[in-house]
Task: structure prediction
Amino acid sequence: MNDINHLREDFPILKRLIYGKPFVYLDNAATTQKPQVVLDKMLEFYTTRNSNIHRGVHYLSEQATAAYESARETVRKFLNADDVSEIIFTHGTTDSINIIADSFGQTFINQGDEIIVTAMEHHSNFIPWQMLCKRKGGILKVIPVDENGTLIIEKLSELITQKTKFISLTYVSNVLGVINPVVEIVKTAHSFDVPVLIDGAQAVQHFPVDVKALDCDFFVFSGHKIFAETGIGVLYGKQKWLEKLAPPRFGGGMVKKVEVEETSFADPPLKFEAGTSNFAGAVSLKAAIEYINNIGFSDIMAHERDVFDYAVGKFKELEKVTTYGNASSRCGVISFNLDKIHPYDAALIMDKAGVFVRTGTHCTEPLMKHFGIDGTIRTSFALYNTRDDVDKLVESIKKVQKIMCAGT
Amino acid sequence: MTINENQDQIIEELLPLNDWFEKYEYLVSLGKALKPLDEEFKTDDNLIKGCQSKVWLRAEKKNNKICLAADSDTLITKGILALLLQVLNNQSPEDIINCNLYFVEKIGLSTNLSPARANGVVSIIKQLMFYANKLK
Result:
């Protein structure tokens, strides 16, 4: 394993002093920071190649189009998809899921049909399906989680029926860091001819994803959680599905022919990319993926595992702390609460200690209800975090406990 | 004491505190000391809704003075409520409406609890002003 503790140096924002000192950024599940190479690529694109894509014959438009399409190829390779036509650029994970919920729902969901999600979904992979069910008279079923935050996978065989039309679930929980057994779920689903969407928003930055090995029908993620710009996302769909699905949105750039009476649509992926795409975002995503590829996932995973395990060990040593989601297979996120201390109070103090975390329900209210809590303090890690960051986190937690418990 | 005398007193108490941790420690101690709101008043009507913490604020008029009571599930917010009550409790509706709450900025709370933050001091003050207008 190569030592990659120096990666922090690649991220200019991490060199800032806040409150007069360096800070520890542990809010990576919300968004990641951007390495200099990504920022450079953005600037280079805007200063040399910026122009709207696909519709121009002039030099700049061709260059911008080439950059955009080459980003698509980079994403294809990154996910090991068969063909670039299976890679749709969207505005993010939420956008990708909504596109599929709308499009799939329109054609394939009817009264009494069932859709299955899990109890640990982010609202973005919960509400679109709930709304679809309300619209079409469908039934939303939920795979429960146990006290460790592990999916009770045995329940799937009870939940799945001839009426089940779709399963959508997260690869890695944004609150618990639990890695779900998606391969097994896809296998079960396919034995019932049910397609599966995997929300990879908290996965792609931590370990390699191979959509062919997963055999999932759809896979989605956001650029900003993997060191790229905000507002760019990916929707991978198997060709057989993308051909069958109708576009949920209409506009420029996604048509073959438009007449007053009728419109015929372009082939995938363009039929799902109505309007001007975030082409600059796609360029940044390519740069971010290349950044990851240059380091290599084997080193990233070894480093992140080391820091994560170190943090788990440190949490075990802390007193009056409850952690959530102690499944055997997890990465990236540790959520916790401090006895008799509101997460909001804790985060205010941690902020001033230069440790930036997130508190609240993390857009997973059904999961909070399962644990019987109003929220958690969430620390989430990226490749630039170190054991030293964990030490500062622990110090800040002790500081919170000292301040909040003074005089009691 | 007038509203401004109350504010000046708070500024005097808080200014010597060197860093944020001391300020928070002070707010936490105020929060712990603030009398909890009776459960019967922890109603939706009295709740200032936000996604991070809950704040209840209650106002009634006695002898042309506004009597305030407040509570929160977070101690630092409760400490801030204690400060606001210290400044505005038992003042006339007119004085409350016309006051300038300069202490908030003076002690650095406005930068910390910006209007963008749920249950920031701004939304609490807004609710206080709403009550004062309603009860004048």
The interface with chain A takes residues 19-21, 24-25, 28-29, 32, 51-53, 73-77, 112 of chain B (CB under 8 Å). Residues 68 and 89 of chain B are 6 Å apart (CA to CA). Chain B has a mean pLDDT of 87. The longest strand of chain B covers residues 55-62.
